[in-house]
User: Fold this.
Amino acid sequence: MFYNFLEDATPAGNNTLITVVFVVIIVAMIGLLIWQTISGKKKQKEAQNMLNQLKIGDRVKTIGGVCGFVVEINDAENTFVLETGTDDNKSYVKFDKGAIYQTAPAQGSAVEAKEEAKADAVTETEEPAKEETETPAE
Assistant:
């Protein structure tokens, strides 16, 4: 009964239009699925490259929001140790590499930056060299 109602309501020419619309929708859905698969693989490859390029001294932000410098990498366990805090109060936390959200390449290492800061502090505390003053000739 219901099928007879639909056949009576639609003219014969609209059946091909409905078929074409369904085919277009199905093709669009398949294309979207393929596009999502390709872009997902690309993002996964980029994330893997980021993990492979991780070095000691790199700045890292985890998915939990913890920021710091990488001080140790263990590829066998797929983990790294992150140094956080200040000079007075440092903390070392071990994370799985999958917890990395962002990385920034090391601009020198954290150790080198701290050594430079200490060297600058030492030179500031030293007394400046006494300058020789010229006496006017008589």
Remarks:
- The radius of gyration is 33 Å.
- The chain has a mean pLDDT of 78.
